[in-house]
Design a protein that fits this description.
By secondary structure, the protein is α+β, with helices and mostly antiparallel strands. The protein folds into two domains: about 1-50, no CATH class; about 60-180, 2-Layer Sandwich (Heat Shock Protein 90), CATH 3.30.565.10. It contains five helices and seven strands; from the N terminus they run βααββααββαββ. α3 packs antiparallel against α4 and α4 packs antiparallel against α5. The protein is elongated and about 80 Å long.
Length: about 180
């Protein structure tokens, strides 16, 4: 995120602020371009540029063992805090991610305990996206066989704006998205 303030001159256009053609630029490149536009005549002007970097994505790979759920939750919580996700959204993401990870362990790797589960999380200015992937085999839900179980997917869908499950021959991925409202 970049904010440009200048009491005398107009701020750069969106394309100028982001780089040619709106492409993303590094903070160093942005700063160099911005300061090159400042007058060199030694005049007095108040100019401020504030840059804030979003945390990079979170990538975790862990064995498909239930003992890994708490450390994964703690790592995700710390990352969400670093991203400054509001408490209610953070709690929804943690619960939904916990359900997806538990499903990957219990169902996706039911025949391969200890195989790898992956969690990827990234944040934008207005949203969080998570992907939980296993390398196991898809198990068709059978709610009538175990009526006291099987509420995880409904819970994920209630807590996140979008949930997409993609089963395939090399495993299953669950992609979840939610908006960040401040």
């Amino acid at each position: 995120m970049a904010q440009y303030e200048d009491a005398v001159r107009e701020p750069p256009s969106g394309d100028e602020a982001a780089g040619r053609g709106g492409r993303a630029v590094t903070a160093d490149e942005f700063t160099a371009r911005g300061t090159a536009r400042l007058p060199s005549h030694g005049g007095h002007d108040d100019v401020a540029v504030l840059l804030r970097r979003r945390p990079g994505p979170l990538d975790l790979a862990f064995p498909a063992e239930s003992s890994q759920l708490a450390p994964v939750r703690e790592a995700l919580r710390a990352w969400l805090d670093h991203c400054r996700v509001p408490p209610r959204t953070r709690q929804n993401v943690l619960v939904a991610a916990g359900e997806a990870c538990a499903n990957a362990i219990e169902h996706g790797h039911r025949h391969a305990r200890g195989a790898t589960v992956r969690l990827h999380a990234d944040a934008s200015a207005d949203g969080v996206r998570l992907v939980v992937a296993d390398s196991g085999s898809w198990r068709t839900p059978q709610p009538q066989a175990r009526p006291h179980r099987g509420r995880g997917m409904a819970l994920m869908r209630a807590l996140m704006q979008q949930v997409t499950v993609t089963p395939g021959p090399s495993g299953t991925s669950v992609e979840m998205r939610t908006r960040i409202t401040r």
